[in-house]
Design goal:
Helices cover about 70% and strands about 0% of the residues. It is mainly alpha-helical. It folds into two domains: about 1-100, no CATH class; about 100-260, no CATH class. The relative contact order is 0.09.
Length: about 260
């Protein structure tokens, strides 16, 4: 018997894998100010163009054993990893919200979060092309999507961006050093634009916990102590993903418990 839900889960998994493949191109080229459209994918060692059958998301990397068919240069395991993450999150989005305005918004949001996460890991930057445009898209989506409220999205932008800006300003006054990048501030404002202001405390708390654990582990490995620098954007993105897929229930329970009627 035909199962429609399973069929569309597979469709969105494949769609996510394809966008993950494109995301890999963006992750590599955008920080270098290179076109993400031309030229087509090629081996960065021998410069030969990669054929379509060697560029099938997830599978090609394993079939080629992570190497270029022409020169044997190694391809990073990150390529299938990004594709698998994107594919899984696209399928989860369909599972949680089905066909709706929110699904379209979630897919755009997830693509941006995954790409920004890996760019931040590599270069410690969060591109304005994603964060600022994400804020605009989030606000426009709130105005068009009957499942969301524009005021809630606007408060999310102000609360998200304003909270991190305030923390960064206080930190600078106390230490005369910048402790929070402007990209993180814009990223949390973007998250607030899509998820609303009630998501901000959950995202901040969950990202701070995960980021602190990672920071402690990294500081012990690098022996740099409190001077260890880690990108915070990936943990904000992870907190937003947690909220999308289950965390909202926890956040709303918290508000009902301490701020009933809000």
């Amino acid at each position: 018997m035909f199962d429609q839900d399973i069929f569309f889960l597979v469709v969105f998994f494949i769609l996510g894998a394809l966008f993950g493949s494109f995301g890999n191109v963006v992750i590599y080229r955008l920080p270098k100010d290179e076109s993400v459209v031309k030229p087509r994918s090629y081996c960065y060692s021998c410069k030969k163009q990669i054929k379509w059958y060697d560029n099938i998301p997830i599978f090609s990397w394993f079939l080629l054993r992570g190497r270029c068919r022409h020169c044997g240069a190694k391809f990073s395991f990150r390529y299938p990893l990004v594709e698998l993450i994107m594919a899984s999150l696209f399928a989860l989005s369909y599972h949680y919200v089905g066909f709706s305005w929110s699904l379209l918004e979630y897919l755009i949001f997830i693509f941006g979060l995954v790409v920004c996460t890996f760019i931040d890991f590599d270069h410690m930057i969060l591109p304005d092309e994603f964060t600022l445009s994400g804020i605009v898209i989030g606000l426009v989506g709130a105005a068009l999507n009957p499942q969301r409220e524009f005021v809630d999205a606007l408060l999310g932008v102000l609360m998200g961006g304003g909270f991190l800006w305030g923390m960064a300003y206080v930190y600078y006054l106390l230490t005369k050093n910048e402790g929070m990048g402007g990209g993180d501030i814009k990223l949390l404002a973007w998250i607030g634009a899509l998820l609303g202001w009630k998501a901000i405390p959950f995202v901040i708390m969950s990202s701070a916990i995960v980021g602190s654990v990672v920071g402690i582990v990294m500081s012990r490995k690098q022996k740099a102590g409190l001077k260890t620098v880690i990108p915070f954007g990936p943990y904000l993105a992870l907190g937003a993903i947690f909220y999308l897929f289950g965390g909202e229930t926890i956040a709303l329970w918290y508000f009902d418990l301490f701020l009933p009627g809000v």
